[in-house]
């Protein structure tokens, strides 16, 4: 398979916290070097994970797959400036990401939720929740997007859950996304949004 590498990067929020590294090298399915989080993970395989459980535990690595951007490329390949011949490769990436999700889950790796959608497409990030709900359960997708993501970023004492002293980041949905995860994918279904205790959207 060769070598795949996400170039070293960091997430810094300006609060003085240590940055969250996001670099990983994978060679023939084995984790050769890693930071705190691995995006996508489409090159991970079961042997690579089982051969490095100590490394995973020691560095608290997390996998953050991003299925929504892959779906966007499949549904609008030309709009992304890609040739239609790339569709097969994109399909292969989606299949490998799906396999990696199952492998990582079996190995006990923390799995967050991302989308890689940028610009105008950011209003479709709920699509990631819908896609993950199809591969796991709606509740598992929701926990990944909230509690697990907060843990990965080192913010679990502030966000990611509902408890005294935490920021009030809440969404009220029109419909029950745990029963019908397609609710996640339509921004108009988010009828009330509370961010850090402040109501920023109210369509009631």
From TrEMBL:
Signal peptide range: none
Amidohydrolase-related domain residues: 93-200
Keywords: Hydrolase
InterPro entries: Amidohydro-rel, Metal-dep_hydrolase_composite, Metal_Hydrolase, Metallo-dep_Hydrolase
This protein's record includes keyword RNA-binding: no
Presence of keyword Hydrolase: yes
Single annotated GO MF: hydrolase activity, acting on carbon-nitrogen (but not peptide) bonds
PANTHER family: ALPHA-D-RIBOSE 1-METHYLPHOSPHONATE 5-TRIPHOSPHATE DIPHOSPHATASE (PTHR43135:SF3)
Protein name per the record: Amidohydrolase family protein
Organism: Micromonospora olivasterospora
Top-level taxonomy: Bacteria, Bacillati, Actinomycetota, Actinomycetes, Micromonosporales
